[in-house]
Design goal:
about 180 residues; mainly alpha; 8 helices; globular
């Protein structure tokens, strides 16, 4: 098991309340050449798995993906019930955790969809804290850092002004389509 004391010690601390101190591309660049090739592939797969890469080989990434899948299944299940969609197609018959069920319930009932999304991000963040808890200078610490960095990047993309602009654009397109009918 490799330890990466220097690399991890030079990384800026990540806190959920803060903005992302760097992009995940910059993080991968820092890792390249400073960790073993096999560990670099793992860190890259942590980034790629968030966008549909190969299934992970490392236990940390398997646990992370399993947790994320549990959240998605619970979201689908509760959304289907809320929309009164029948059948077993959306039913969550897999593993369940109370914290996931309650966070999803709160997120879906939030008056503001952004607040709902932020609560889901916090759930992910806390899980990563639990999963990487005692890992400080090893590959698990780098994997958790990579995923947390992506959470911060995603959170940083949320902008009230951009959201309003997109809403107005979509609403205008919808009005145009209705008028053309």
């Amino acid at each position: 098991m490799s330890s990466y004391y220097y690399l991890v010690a030079t990384l800026p601390m990540l806190r959920y309340e803060d903005v992302s101190p760097m992009s995940h591309e910059a993080f991968l660049e820092l890792c390249h050449g400073n960790i073993s090739d096999s560990d670099y592939r793992l860190v890259r797969s942590a980034v790629l798995s968030a966008v549909g890469g190969d299934s992970p080989k490392h236990p940390f990434l398997r646990k992370w993906n399993q947790f994320r899948d549990m959240v998605v299944k619970e979201l689908n299940d509760q959304r289907a019930r809320k929309l009164e969609l029948g059948g077993d197609r959306y039913r969550n018959e897999g593993d369940k955790e109370y914290r996931i069920t309650e966070t999803v319930r709160a997120a879906l009932s939030a008056a503001d969809p952004l607040q709902g999304e932020l609560s889901l991000m916090q759930l992910y963040w806390k899980y990563l804290d639990d999963l990487g808890g005692l890992h400080t200078f090893d590959i698990e610490a780098l994997l958790a850092y990579a995923v947390k960095l992506q959470i911060l990047e995603r959170k940083g993309r949320f902008s009230l002004q951009d959201g309003n602009s997109e809403f107005k654009r979509l609403f205008s397109n919808l009005q145009s389509k209705i008028k053309s009918i």
